[in-house]
Amino acid sequence: MSLLAATNVAIERGDRTLLRGVSLRIEAGELWQLVGPNGVGKSSLMRALAGLARLGVEGAIQCNASTLFIGHSAALKRALTPLDNLRLHPACDTPVEDEQIRHALSAVSLAGYESVPVGALSAGQQRRVALARLCITPARLWFLDEPFTALDNAGCHWLEQQIAGHVASGGAVLFTSHQQSRFGAQQHDLDLARYASR
């Protein structure tokens, strides 16, 4: 059974149809990238596929797996620490122990920053806090909207390893990025320009 099956999906924003006729099946062990120009509807489609948007969405979407969504915005409370952010907004609403969170922050090179308010961190460090959720989630299907934004080379390399490892272990990933393909033949591209409303 596919982890995600979408058939003839259309996305509207306001009075404008962005996309129509999008169909996609994601199987365990697959890596997909949504590609297309700015404004084509990549983020809107991803939110719809993740079940986070229903208004302005037509067609059939069936998800058969636990999911994690990390959006273009880091979705962090600036006044709280990384530890508190991950404690209060855990991946997939799964309760986690502080020790797991500390390990996740260490994995994203933020050991020692556990108690620093997120607002005092750089954009790249804030992105790393958000991505630390990848280390504590049991979700099989990851939705990652522009996950490489604000990351340095080391951060990009770490994220590439996490994505490749998750797919190799039987999970699946759907992501967007304005950067060139990072995963070669392992990656499937869905070019949304083909489905853009004229």
How would you explain this protein's 3D organization?
By secondary structure, the chain is of the alpha/beta class. It has a domain at about 5-65 and about 140-195: P-loop containing nucleotide triphosphate hydrolases (Rossmann fold), CATH 3.40.50.300. It has five helices and eight strands. It has helices at about 40-50, 80-90, 100-105, 125-130, 155-170; strands at about 5-15, 15-25, 30-35, 55-65, 65-70, 140-145, 170-175, 185-190. It has a five-stranded parallel beta sheet, with helices on both faces. The protein has a three-stranded antiparallel beta sheet with strand order 2-1-4, covered by helices on one side. Strand 1 (about 5-15) and strand 2 (about 15-25) form a beta hairpin. Helix 2 (about 80-90) crosses helix 3. The longest helix is centred in the C-terminal third of the chain and has 16 residues, at about 155-170. The model has no long low-confidence stretch (mean pLDDT about 95).
Question: What multimeric state do the chains show?
Answer: single chain
CATH evolutionary superfamily of the domain at 4-65 and 140-195? P-loop containing nucleotide triphosphate hydrolases
Strand content: 25-35%
Instruction: Give the biggest sheet.
Output: 5 strands, parallel
Structural class: alpha/beta
Compute the number of helices.
5
Gyration radius, rounded: 17 Å
Listing every helix as H and every strand as E from the N terminus to the C terminus, the arrangement reads: EEEHEEHHHEHEE
